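TL;DR need structure tokens for one chain.
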Amino acid sequence: MITELFGKKMSIKQFSLVLIASAFVVSCGSSKNVSAGKKSGSKTIAKSENLRKLDSKFDGKVPRSINDILKDAEKYLGTPYKFGGNTSSGFDCSGFTVKVFEENAYNLPRRSSDQADTGKNIDITDVKPGDLLFFATAGGSRVSHVGIVHDIGPDGEVKFIHASTSKGVIISSLNEKYWNKAYLRAQRVL
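>> reply
TL;DR here they are.
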């Protein structure tokens, strides 16, 4: 059977591949290296150009159990993105978080939207390493991406480790315009 998409004729198999690729693009966001800053007086991340100095309450102390999780996450840096993946041969965003937490005897739901309903919702100024950050990479307010808070700089910059569609497992910053704009909320699951 032949179908048509954007004026091009294609087989059902080709059409199915286009649908799968579309889901891939929407499921976990890509990373763009652009800086942003903080909106003055804001307690949460404003989708603006000023996120440089977030008034973080993090005291710099990281429990051993969280350090173990972060070390396990770091060992996957550079692992490629794979839609539906949850092994060292390739991860999608929620497969990555599930695997890392599972290696440390913590169970998370498989989908990022379900992970967003796990634990306690926290303000961005209260995040610590090991907390989960959720994003709407397709716009709107639907959770479509997740990352693990990796560290918080002395200036309050929040960095997170995640499986991006374009670069695989990497560490990104909420100061990057793309992630600042897509940020939805943070959850403490430990």
